[in-house]
Amino acid sequence: VLSHNLCTVLNVPHDPVALEEHFRDDDEGPVSNQGYMPYLNKFILEKVQGNFDKVEFNRMCWTLCAKKNLSKSPLLISDEDAFKVWVIFNFLSEDKYPLIIVPEEIEYLLKKITEAMGAGWQQEQFDHYKIALNTSREGLSAWELIDLIGSGQFSKGMDRQTVSMAINEVFNELILDVLKQGYMLKKGHKRKNWMERWFVLKPNIISYYVSEDLKDKKGDIILDGNCCVEALPDKDGKKCLFLIKCLDKTFEISASDKKKKQEWIQAIQSTVNLLRAGSPPPHKEARQKRKELRQKLLAEQEELERQMKELQAANENKQKELETVRKQLEAAAARAAEEEKKRLQTQVELQDRFSLELEREKMVRQKMEEQVAQKSSELEQYLQRVRELEEMYKQLQEALEDEKQARQDEETVRKLQARLLEEETAKRAELEKWHLQQQQTIQMTEAEKQELENQRMMKEQALQVAMQQLKQLELERKEALEQYEEVKKKLETAANNTKSWKDKVAHHEGLIRLIEPGSKNPHLITNWGPAAFTEAELEERQRSWKGKKSASE
Length: 553
Prior knowledge:
Layout: H1 2-9, H2 16-22, H3 33-43, H4 54-69, H5 79-92, H6 103-117, H7 123-136, H8 142-150, H9 160-174, E1 180-187, E2 194-202, E3 205-209, E4 217-222, E5 228-232, E6 241-245, E7 250-254, H10 258-277, H11 282-332, H12 337-497, H13 500-503, E8 506-508, E9 511-513, E10 525-526, E11 529-530, H14 535-552
Antiparallel strand pairs: 1-2, 1-7, 2-3, 3-4, 5-6, 6-7, 8-9, 10-11
C-alpha cells in the first residue's frame, strides 16, 4: 500500500512484480526503515521526473508520521496549520539527518509569522529562549517546532484565526513560491469588459482565479525575461492602471489604489529581473545566503577553535619549556647568581608581554563594543527617519485627497453652471422662435388682408366691365331687333309676291329661317329665328353672370 501510494503521488508507474521479487527472500517479519530504503531508492525515487504535486507528497508523508509523533497536548493551531509548519520545517531544516532547524532559522520563521500577524517582534524574549536552547542542543525537531508555535509563546494576545492566517501566508511564500497575491480588475481580450480576479504571483507565472479559494482558475500570464510592466494613465473610468507586456499577449490590470499598483509593479518587475538574471526566488536565495553565512561562521568558529588549540598547545609547550628552564635554572642556581637574575628578568619580560597582549585584546574588544553601540545608534536614527518619512507620506496622501475632493467639488459646480447656461440658452432660443412665429403670423395676416383687398378691387373692376358689356349687349340686341323687323317686313312682301317662296321657308317649332349663305360655323336657332348673339358672346355673358353670382354670395 505504501509503495503504491508513493508511486501514485510521485507519478511513477507501480510495478508489483518488482516489489514481490525484491522481498521474496525476506521472511524475518516486518520490514524496517533500513530494509525498505534500497527498494525505495531503486524502484521509486530513481524514476521520479519532478512533475508531481509536492504539497500532496508532503501531505502523504505527514499522514504517515503525524499520528505517531504529534504531541497529544492541546495546541493553539489546527492540524492543517501543524501540517504547514511541518512542511516549512522540511524546507528550512539542515541537510543532515536527523533533521533539525537551527536557532537562526527558528528566528527567521517566527519573525515572518509575527510580521504576518501584524505584531511586534520580541527580540529579547527570543534571545532568552535561544540561550536556553543553545545550552541543551543545536536545534529543534519538526514536532518540537510545532509545539513551540502551537503553544503561543511568541503569539500572545493573538486569536487562532490570526495565527492560522499568518502561517498560511508564510506557507504560500516559502513553499508555494507565492511572491504576492490579491484582488485586482482585469480587462478581457475578447469582450473588453473588466472583471475582478484573484491574482497569484509566482517566480515565473501569474495565475488569476475567480476568488481567493483558488478553485476556479481563469488563466495564466507566463513570465520570462522578455516581459515588461508599465504604468498607464487613468482611462475609461478606471484608475491605478498598469500593463503587462508578454511576447504573445498584453494584459491591462487595474489595482485598488496607488499603493497596491506600485507594489504589484515592483513585485512583477523584480520577478522579471530575477528571470533575466537566472536567479532563484528571493526566499530561496535568502535561505541559501543564510546557510552560506552559517557555514562561513561555522568555518570561522572552527578556525578560531583550531587557533585556540594551537595557542593552547603552544602555551603548553611554552610552559614545558619554562618548566625545563626553571629546572635548568634551579640546577644552575648554584653556578651563578647572575644567570638566576637573567632568568628572573626573562620571566618578568614574558609576563609583561602576556599582560600587554591581554590589555591589547581588551582594547580591541572595547573598540568592537563601541562600534556595535555606534551602529545601534545609527540604526535607531535611521528607523526614526523612516518613521518621519512615513508620517510625511501619510500627510501628503491626506493633502492629495483634500485637493482631489476640492477639484471634484469645483467640477460639480462647473457642470451645474454649464447646465444652467444651457437651459437659459434653450429658453432664449425658444422665445426667439415664438417671436419669429408671431412676426410671420402677423406678416401672413397682412398679406392675406392685402390679397383679399386686391381680389375685391379686381372683382369690382370685372363687375364694372361686365356692366359696360351688358349695356353694349342691350344696345346690340335693340339694333338686332330693328334689323329683324326690317327683314320680316321684306319676307312678308316676298311671300305675297310669289307662292313658291313658302316652299322654300322652313318652319321648325314656329321659327322662320331664311335660306342664305352662312358661315361654316353652326348657327344658334331660337323660336324667333337665328340667334341674336354669337356663341362667343353667349359664353362671355355666362362668365359675367357667374362672376356676379359669386360676388353676391
